[in-house]
Amino acid sequence: MDRRREELLAAALELFSKYDAEDVSIDDVAAAAGASRALVYHYFGGKQELYVAALRSAAVELEARLRPSGDGAVIEELRAGLARYFDFVEDHAAGFAALLRGGPANRAGEVGEIIEGVRRRLVKMIMGRMRVDDPSPALRVTLRSWIACVETAGLDWLESRDVDRGVLERLLVEQMVALLGVAARHDGRVEGLVADFGR
Amino acid sequence: MDRRREELLAAALELFSKYDAEDVSIDDVAAAAGASRALVYHYFGGKQELYVAALRSAAVELEARLRPSGDGAVIEELRAGLARYFDFVEDHAAGFAALLRGGPANRAGEVGEIIEGVRRRLVKMIMGRMRVDDPSPALRVTLRSWIACVETAGLDWLESRDVDRGVLERLLVEQMVALLGVAARHDGRVEGLVADFGR
Fold this sequence. Notes:
Two copies of one chain form a homodimer. Helix content of chain A is about 80%, strand content about 0%. Chain A is mostly helical. Chain A has two domains: about 1-55, Orthogonal Bundle (Arc Repressor Mutant, subunit A); about 65-195, Tetracycline Repressor, domain 2 (Orthogonal Bundle). Residues about 105 of chain A have low confidence and may be disordered.
């Protein structure tokens, strides 16, 4: 990909991570990248497009960080994945909070699709790691719910910062185990997954 | 409040419940209420304002449905509340899905504030019913997470309809108990709440 475009995108992502999108201007991005305003418009067309492009690159980064190694017990990988997730939340604090709390106005379709896409692929990653191709409804709802728990915990942590990150990460692992235990009561196939979890 | 305005609002809410907001026009709302396009503009100014007003009235309706009676065990009230929640989801199916698809994201300022306000007040309602004024961080995260689980389950159900509603409602009650059990491991005060739950 074009190096100049990459530099602009990196500068944009850093600014959108630190500040609410409304408080970041095209001029700020140009200045941070040592480029002209015109060059930003040349590559991205406008601020909304730049925001969407930065969000897309953040999504790619998050998924790369969370890709399971396939080594070790599922529960260990979950622990390691959560630590990397909270690193990401911390690195992109303001942007993450603004995005999930309901940031810039006009962000109907595209932004929502990027976020939904990340969630769907995270559910798939976890299913892959659990060696499940075709989840039962109870398992599907459970994994989607847990992803929502993780997002909620990340947002709550950024807002309040009154819990130790490590405690929150442990809480989330235990929530996953507890939620799978509930699902197992409704679907016998989940029982085996729970048993495999710590192996 | 003005009767004419109320009628327009009721017509708007019904249309926004049945169709994606993009597919509802001012003309549709006017026609459904037997009013002129000009009258809709007179009362609401434009479609975004009308949508926000309809959403606000849906939020009021939802909270009225979910207000706990204070009779019976907390777990019984939770069961009854979930049944009323799913009635609401069913009554406003398309609008609910369009609104929450994209989950905590995909929403601009005013709309985001309405939804966040509902969530905050639901957490408060549950805390009130549990007789907790000042939640520990672990309890706060748990209740917020559970609200996210309920939203996720509602959305999943509208998308897939492959689980019985009653099964999903039971799953959610069990999730609440399981999540509180996890929180109790991190905060001794939650233990007592879990014990009181079935009383």
